[in-house]
Specification:
Blueprint lengths: L1 H10 L1 H11 L8 E3 L5 E3 L13 H46 L1 H6 L57 H4 L12 H4 L6 H14 L4 H14 L2 H14 L5 H14 L3 H11 L7 H13 L3 H14 L4 H23 L2
Protein name: Tetratricopeptide repeat 17-like isoform X2
Organism: Paramuricea clavata
InterPro entries: TPR-like_helical_dom_sf, TPR_2, TPR_rpt, TTC17
């Protein structure tokens, strides 16, 4: 560098003086750090940085300053913990007060978090005037080893099958979720493996039957194979007539909600409302989904709609009060910390 400066200075004295003057602006760093890229760089804004590294007295006092700084940090940390404890205690007091005094909280019977917001729902076939046993082959003899009802009908691309939703796009990566409680309400009279094989027999004769495809999906929902259930429901959506799609959409929404795609599930249930005459289950399902997403106002609307159709729908009534309780409680907690 000095050779270059000398050369410039000889040829252009004015420029040389400017360059030499610039060289006097030098920073002495006393704290170095390694960056994420592996480079070593100086760090000015550090407790280890010395403004005057040449001053021995300041250097000697540095350790005392660091100890003092450490004590201040510890005191601030303790004070922060005390404030957090006080805030938590205030929150607990407010929550207990609401749950013991608020009318909606009392009518709910328990906090919203204690409700199963992923409760399984299904549209019964009889609400559509269908007796599903009429479509199952009960005559053929069962083999020694049952084969489950895989849905393999050719399926062209269609927006009807909700292919645009993330949960459908990622259906081969989706988590399995078993809905064993459904068995008590649907196939209670039959051994599950046997009814599954009989549905398979029936699908072999009519692989585009939306009723059989829905039954196969219910079988897979109970067994806990979410991917196979979705495959059956995609085909059921494609091959069913419009008025029958509501049942299939509610079933699909359950799977999406149970496997972490609750926003997709809300879209699917909302679509089901356009196809069903009896919308109780759809409104109830949507109310649970919105409650799990923290959308309490939307959840309230859904539960009220379900109760408008069936005033004695107590399961929906308790959840409505729980949602109202939670919404008021959240608002009170926000006001408490303003």
């Amino acid at each position: 560098m000095s050779a270059v400066i000398t050369s410039v200075y000889r040829n252009s004295p004015g420029i040389g003086l400017i360059l030499l003057a610039m060289l006097h602006v030098v920073l002495a760093y006393t704290h170095w750090v390694i960056t994420d890229q592996g480079r070593i760089r100086s760090k000015i804004y550090s407790e280890f940085h010395l403004r005057r590294p040449e001053n021995l007295i300041i250097f000697i006092r540095t350790e005392d300053d660091l100890k003092r700084l450490k004590r201040v940090k510890e005191e601030l940390s303790k004070e922060k913990k005390v404030l957090e404890v006080e805030r938590d205690e205030e929150k607990v007091d407010l929550v207990m007060k609401y749950h013991s005094e608020d009318e909606d909280c009392l009518l709910a019977g328990k906090p919203l978090k204690n409700f199963d917001l992923k409760i399984s729902t299904v549209i019964p076939f009889d609400t559509l005037g269908i007796r599903y046993t009429d479509y199952i082959d009960f005559k053929s003899e069962l083999p020694h080893q049952s084969v489950p009802p895989f849905c393999a009908a050719v399926l062209p691309f269609s927006m009807i099958t909700m292919e645009h939703l993330e949960g459908l796009v990622k259906r081969d990566q989706i988590n399995n979720y078993s809905e064993k409680d459904l068995n008590k309400h649907i196939f209670a009279e039959y051994q599950l493996e046997n009814i599954g094989h009989r549905i398979k027999y029936s699908l072999e004769k009519n692989e585009t039957s939306w009723i059989l495809l829905n039954l196969a999906a219910l079988y897979w929902r109970i067994q806990g194979n979410s991917f196979e259930a979705i495959e059956c429901l995609r085909r059921a959506l494609y091959y069913s007539y419009s008025n029958a799609r509501g049942m299939t959409l509610v079933s699909l929404a359950n799977i999406l909600h149970h496997t972490g795609f609750s926003k997709d599930a809300s879209v699917v249930v909302d679509a089901s409302l356009h196809f069903l005459n009896d919308k109780r289950i759809s409104w109830f399902t949507l109310g649970n989904i919105f409650a799990s997403l923290g959308r309490y106002s939307s959840s309230e609307i859904c539960f009220r709609e379900a109760l408008e159709i069936q005033p004695n729908f107590n399961t929906a009534k308790h959840r409505l009060h729980a949602v109202l309780c939670e919404r008021k409680l959240q608002k009170a907690l926000e006001q408490q910390h303003e």
